[in-house]
Amino acid sequence: MTSGQSYWQIVWKQFRKNPFSVGSLWVLAVLFLIAIFAPVLACNIPFYYHDERGTAWPWFRALFNPEETVDYWFNLAMVAFFPWLIGVVIHALRYRRRYPEKLLPVGKYAAVYALAILGLGGIFMIPGVRPDNRYRARTFPEEEFARQGTARAVYPLIPFGPTEQDMDSPVKPPFYRKPRFTTNPNTGEQVLFWRKSNDGFPHILGTDDVGRDVLVRMIYGLRISLTVGFVAVGIYMVIGIVLGAIAGYYGGFVDILISRIIEVIMLFPAFFLILTLVGLLGQSIYIIMVVIGLTGWPTVARLIRGEVLKQRNLDYVAAARATGATNLRVLFWHVLPNSLSPAMVAAPFGIAGAIITEAGLSLLGFGVRLPAPSWGLLLRQGSENYHYWWLVVFPSLAMFITVTAFNLVGNGLRDAMDPRLRI
User: What coarse category fits the chief subcellular location reported for this protein (predicted)?
Assistant: First the structure.
C-alpha cells in the first residue's frame, strides 16, 4: 500500500524497518548534541564568577572567542539551537494539522539551522559586534582557590578545559581524584597539593601525559571528527554531484572529458597526498578536509552519472523539454533531484571514512596539531606505552561507535532506497 505516498515517505517507511539503522540515527543525534553543547558539559571557565572586584560572566564571552575555529562554529550552533528548536516545534505542529499525511520537511529545517549558524557567524564578523574576551588572561579556578571564602563561581558539569594541563597529575587512570594534601619527600610533612578549585573533581576517564582530562578532550575531539567528516564529504559531494550530472546529461565529448578526469583523480591516494602536503605546508585540519574533499568526488560522480544516464531518457524529461525548459533547468530542476539517491547512500560511508582518516593521520603525527583535542592524538599517546590503556580503549571505543553508527545509517538508506525491497 504505497499509493498516494511520496518517494521520501516510502524511503522513511522502509528505513524504519531496520531497527539497527534507526538506533544508529538516535546515537548520531546524541553525538551531535554532545558536540554542540560541549562547553555546557565541560569547561574550566565559569558561567558566573564573583569576588571582591565584582561580578563577571566569563563563559559567555569565551563562547565567542574560542582558541579553535571549529569550536567557534559549534558554539554558534549552540546559540542558535534553542530558538531554532522552538521554531521547528511550532511549525511542525501547524504542519501536522494542515497536512497530516505528509512527512515533516526535515531537510528544510536542517537548511534553516545551517543558514542561522552562517548568519550568526556573519553578524559576529562585523567589527564591534562580537563581544571581546576581556578575561582571556585570567585563570578562574586558580583565582577562586586563592580567594577561598571571598570568591564564588558556577562551573559546567565537568570543570576542566580541553587544553588545561596539570603537571602534577600526568597519565592517571580513570576516576583519579587529586589528593588535597601530599607528603613532602624531604621533610615528611603534609603539604597542600591542590592549586585550583577544580583539583578535587575526579578525572572520570583519567588524564594524558601532561595531565589533561581525557573525557573532556574526547568531547571536544568529537567536534573535530564530525567537522572533518562533514566538511570533507560536503566538498566532494558538491563536486561529484555537479560533474557527474553534467557528464551523464550531456554525454559525448563532455562525458569523455569528465570520465578521463575522474580516472586521473582516482590515481591519487588521499592518505599519501595529505602526508606530502603536511610535510610541505605543516599540520593543519584544513589540509585534511580539503584533500579528502578534492580526491573523494570521483566515486560520487560515477554514481550520479549512471543515475542521470538512466533518468534523462524518461518521459518526464521529454515533457520538460517540450515546455521550453533549458538544458540547465531540466538537469538541475528535474533530473538531478531524482538522481541523488546513490549520493545520499554514499555520504554516511564517506563521513565514516573521513573520521578514520583524520584519526589515522593524527595517530601518525600528521593530523591535528597539539594542543587541539583529537581522538587520534589520544591514541598516539596511548600507543607509546600500552600500560596507559585508557588512552587507547576509550578513544578507540568512541571511534568504533561513531563510525559504526554512520555505516549502519548508510546501510539503512541503501536498503530503503532499493526498489526491490519495497513491499
Answer: membrane
